[in-house]
Amino acid sequence: MSEILKTILETDSMARVNLAFIDNAHFEEVQIVKDLGKLITTYQDENIKNDATDQYEEQITVILITWLRHTIAHFSAENELMQQINFPTMRLHTQEHETELNRIKRIIRLWQTDKEITLLADFVFNFWPNWFKAHIRSMDMSMARFAIMNGYKA
Ligand SMILES: [Fe+2]
Ligand SMILES: [Fe+2]
Fold it and tell me: How far is the CA of 114 from the centre of ligand 2 (A)?
């Protein structure tokens, strides 16, 4: 199988929005996805051997659920903040959260039903890092800037 190009986000190089609870949520999420990425890579290597497969599948599922829960909490904290500060483009931002949440749920469903590791790996190493970086730089950044400018204190 040909090796896919992997994008692994590092907390050091991530854009900060300068609201601690949001930056922390972003860093935690990057860490969860990094751990997930490591498991996926090991699983893809070990897959041929077979005996450890069940164990890895179980671990991947557990971390996927952790990721989903974390994302739900992260997005709802941002949605709540936007409501509090009456953020003008809140609708667009919350919709983007909803769409992304559905993507994650779908990929987990596919993993749970078919153990679709290639699809999962592509999402974790390609789609998600690019989406996450772009989302922070655009929507999260402007939301946080607006909050700070309007005197919001966490
Ligand atoms: Fe965010
Ligand atoms: Fe966001």
Answer: 30
